[in-house]
Amino acid sequence: xxxxxxxxxxxxxxxxxxxxxxxxxxxxxxxxxxxxxxxxxxxxxxxxxxxxxxxxxxxxxxxxxxxxxxxxxxxxxxxxxxxxxxxxxxxxxxxxxxxxxxxxxxxxxxxxxxxxxxxxxxxxxxxxxxxxxxxxxxxxxxxxxxxxxxxxxxxxxxxxxxxxxxxxxxxxxxxxxxxxxxxxxxxxxxxxxxxxxxxxxxxxxxxxxxxxxxxxxxxxxxxxxxxxxxxxxxxxxxxxxxxxxxxxxxxxxxxxxxxxxxxxxxxxxxxxxxxxxxxxxxxxxxxxxxxxxxxxxxxxxxxxxxxxxxxxxxxxxxxxxxxxxxxxxxxxxxxxxxxxxxxxxxxxxxxxxxxxxxxxxxxxxxxxxxxxxxxxxxxxxxxxxxxxxxxxxxxxxxxxxxxxxxxxxxxxxxxxxxxxxxxxxxxxxxxxxxxxxxxxxxxxxxxxxxxxxxxxxxxxxxxxxxxxxxxxxxxxxxxxxxxxxxxxxxxxxxxxxxxxxxxxxxxxxxxxxxxxxxxxxxxxxxxxxxxxxxxxxxxxxxxxxxxxxxxxxxxxxxxxxxxxxxxxxxxxxxxxxxxxxxxxxxxxxxxxxxxxxxxxxxxxxxxxxxxxxxxxxxxxxxxxxxxxxxxxxxxxxxxxxxxxxxxxxxxxxxxxxxxxxxxxxxxxxxxxxxxxxxxxxxxxxxxxxxxxxxxxxxxxxxxxxxxxxxxxxxxxxxxxxxxxxxxxx
Length: 729
Ligand SMILES: Nc1ncnc2c1ncn2[C@@H]1O[C@H](COP(=O)(O)OP(=O)(O)O)[C@@H](O)[C@H]1O
Ligand SMILES: [Mg+2]
Description:
The chain has 729 residues and is mainly α. It has four domains: 2-147, Tetratricopeptide repeat domain (Serine Threonine Protein Phosphatase 5, Tetratricopeptide repeat); 190-373, 3-Layer(aba) Sandwich (Rossmann fold); 426-507, Winged helix-like DNA-binding domain superfamily/Winged helix DNA-binding domain (Arc Repressor Mutant, subunit A), CATH 1.10.10.10; 538-723, Tetratricopeptide repeat domain (Serine Threonine Protein Phosphatase 5, Tetratricopeptide repeat), CATH 1.25.40. It contains 38 helices and eight strands. The strands form two sheets. A five-stranded parallel sheet has the order 2-3-4-1-5, with helices on both faces. Strands 6-8-7 form a three-stranded antiparallel sheet. It is globular and about 105 Å long. Bound molecules: adenosine-5'-diphosphate and magnesium ion. The site of adenosine-5'-diphosphate has 19 residues, from helix 9 and helix 19.
């Protein structure tokens, strides 16, 4: 029999090999001697011959265009020997030639994890090359022609805080221990996605366990295979910014495209996309303003991002990595859910890391996302890390003490390397000792930074400490070398949140409070951050106001769910501060957010409690505004009797007249143009009583002219109400 490297004609080789396969297949040769020990060496030899015959046959079938036969024969060979790399290559090529890329890539993933598990090795370079070629292939048969038109992320400095670093696979994988199973699961999800079966996968585990590192390892693999990797991270104090993590992730892709490409890629989706991503607006030029209702604008925005990602994925497979999803605003989680449902056919994987204790995120995405659980490192992995750090003798002790908690193990080893005499008691003491070794100034700046948040902006830290920015920068660089900080785009960040928490917790309370007060003074332009610092030092009044302002900001940017949540926090803070006025405002604002979410009963309750609270607080203007709502769309769409609306409008009108506010009075008679709402809400169809006569009598007359009738006509209701079935009696 000639082997596959022979130069013979494939058809002849195929015929001969087919016959050989028939003769050698299990159940034919030596079948009558199944248990005889003497037969074993012969059987081994036969297996080797069969394997070669199958390789030849599959190769010949492929060469003569019979991809089906090639795949079948190669699959038989794989079934006999799951580590047969030659058979895998034949199978992958055959599938790719038949247009079944997903199958080909899946086979590679299975081989790769099996090799790692059983032999601790990677697939051979030939197999890897084939995998990359299939991954990059656009059309079947296009093997080996990678399409690299789109610049790799990170190729330019985009100004993004989290520019996609162009990770080099070996660097990210170097030093990674004990994560074969997890990496194999992620790789399988990625391979499927890259083959056109998109997915969402959550990397779940406790803080410091190694989620980010694992996700980065997959990102590095994907990037080295030519994928476009888009990344971002969520921060606790950015919930009011609509889709902020998504916007950040898109930036390198947006700025990497020429204006004409971007326009072409977005098509009709350009206007909402430009509203969301200012960098795109700058390139695309002026766009017509969208005056649609808030929920429709939100949907258009989602759709535009989806369209953009789809277009990117048509060029190169896309991996979207969102780190720390537990900190994301609701709008971002809703968007991930949306991606999970609408990406069909796109070569894209969305991977998000989530802290295990934030079960609500996992629950919210359960229907669309797979999960990869990350647990503590096993004894072998800890042993590997310890011996790499020259501390093999301490491996058992560290394992017992740290219970395999990855960050603790890493920090203990680092502390020992820096001169600690024995393993530190706890993660906290390890981190504290390491910060102390950097010197007094660095330690102080790190503690201030720990109060400020996860991002370490040297200019802000310098402002807090009253030192020149250059000095703060030098200290940040020291901390970077000590790996307490990492570089993230334009800023530094704590290498892990637990490091920040350790520094925070070990800072004496009076010092910490002083830092919070100072931070609140410095953060007037970031209401969510300001609120956090004010609350931390017990200044509830300031916190309530800042939260109210953050809720308003979120509302104006369509992040309505986040707006409602922030308004609730504002309300609670106002209660603690004993500030009924801010509490009442928070109620009314939350009512509007609920209205935009089509949560009508909640909106009605908020407006009604808001009106009462405003009255109790003596805030007549706010009471008037709430009364206007109680005579408007929400009660009508909730099916309240018309008398309910009338009496509230009449009360509102009385207040307007009392306040001498003619504009408000006119508006109460024709609630159409609310200057305090986004254009989106202002411009939607409203239920208008007819303008005639004056005083409450006008309202009665308006009623006889049929505006309650319009309430029954659902076509005049804003979209969410119609869909929710409101207004139908
Ligand atoms: N499998 C691993 N092998 C080696 N080091 C790891 C591994 N996983 C995590 N680390 C290191 O442990 C620390 C914490 O990991 P990280 O990914 O930041 O945790 P998480 O994101 O879960 O909070 C980092 O210094 C990281 O480099
Ligand atoms: Mg992390």
